[in-house]
Amino acid sequence: MKIYAFSCLLVLIILISGCSYIPDLGNFGGNTGGSDSKMGLIIDTFEPVIMQKYSAEPVAFRVKIKNTGSETAFDVEARLTNIDEFQIYNQPTKRFQKIPPQTTTATGESPEVTWSWDLDAPVVPKGTKVTFKPRMQIIYTYKTDTVRSITVMPEIELREYVDSGKPFPSDVVSKSTGPVSLDIDIKGPIAHYQSKITFPISLTVQNIGGGTVCREECTDLDRDYNRVDLFLETYDVRLKDCELNNIRLTDDRATVVCNAEIDDSIFFGLIQMGTKQVTKKNIRFNIVYTYITDKVTTIEVVGK
Fold first, then answer.
1. Given this model, what pLDDT does residue 107 score?
2. pLDDT for position 19
3. pTM of this prediction?
4. CA–CA gap between residue 303 and residue 48 (Å, rounded)
5. According to the model, what pLDDT value does residue 287 have?
6. Which residue, 206, 208, 211, 151, is CA-closest to 183?
7. Cα separation of 42 and 55, whole Å?
8. β-strands 58-67, 87-88 pairing
9. In the chain, what are the domain boundaries?
10. 10-residue averages of pLDDT along the chain (304 residues)
11. CATH second-level architecture of 41-140+292-302?
């Protein structure tokens, strides 16, 4: 059956397929000051080598951070805080240009970084035991990328396909893993009457990493904290009636609904779905953001 884009009634079937200075953030790395994130770049180990020390004795904290997501973490900064009573002999910060994901281990790049911080324990009164809670915070740039597909076929063929009882495929083309998730929801079927196809598209952003998300240039807590910018990476899809910049997350979640528009020129790339001719198109969105997470450890100091 031939398709005439300007004369046939078409239905769009949408298938779910799918270094700036950052101020001291206090406990913004997590709700309790110890988020212990399990997504993206995580603090796998942060603990003293020996759990109890005497006043002014040397103390070593061992650290291991690991990239558990599918993207490379860039501009990584680790900060050691809550150590005012300790004597430290070097900078309480450590920086890395990038830490690759686990999927790149075959190239020889490691998704893990280890080191230790060396300090002197605080001086506490003789005969007392005091527990201190140093905190480590990591700040890094990460990316979330999601691709889903849409499927288009003429209305008559659509009805025949539905009447046959065969389910339409639902493919996630690709979806990265990390501390922020991005889901694309596109509803259908939608009628196409003119030379352009329009349909609503819903974009849901969730902070699932247990830490704090911030816009990529995270320099102002009021303007950037708990906010992201969305980017459409499909050149021949246009969005209307929505704003993708400076989206605020409430309770770690935000949903944006847009009207999308595609030219009917996509009908020229027909493929087969069983015996039916259809066309498919991928739609890609991504987010580039700063992420902050932290972990707290404890050490007991005995006065002597």
1. 58
2. 38
3. 0.82
4. 18
5. 95
6. 206
7. 31
8. unpaired
9. 10-19+142-291, 41-140+292-302
10. 39 42 49 55 95 95 94 96 91 93 67 92 95 96 91 66 58 86 76 64 93 88 88 87 92 92 62 56 92 95 94
11. Sandwich (2.60)
Report phi then psi at 162, rounded to 5: -65, -40
Q: Of the candidates 10, 8, 6, 16, which has an alpha carbon nearest to the alpha carbon of residue 187?
A: 16
- Reduced to 3 states (helix: H, G, I; strand: E, B; else coil), residue 204 is strand
Q: Rounded to the nearest 5°, which phi and psi values hold at 106?
A: -65, -20
Q: What does the chain come to in residues? A: 304
CB atoms within 10 A of CB 235: 6
Q: Please give the span between the terminal C-alpha atoms of the chain, in angstroms, as a whole number.
A: 91
CB count within 10 Å of CB 270 equals: 15
What is the structure's pLDDT at 191? Answer: 44
SS3 content of the chain, % helix, strand, coil (to 5): 10, 50, 40
Per DSSP, 235 falls in state T
With H, G, I as helix, E, B as strand and everything else as coil, classify residue 252: coil
Chain centre distance of CA 128: 45
Q: What strands, in cross-sheet order, belong to the sheet with 237-240?
A: 180-186, 196-207, 253-263, 237-240
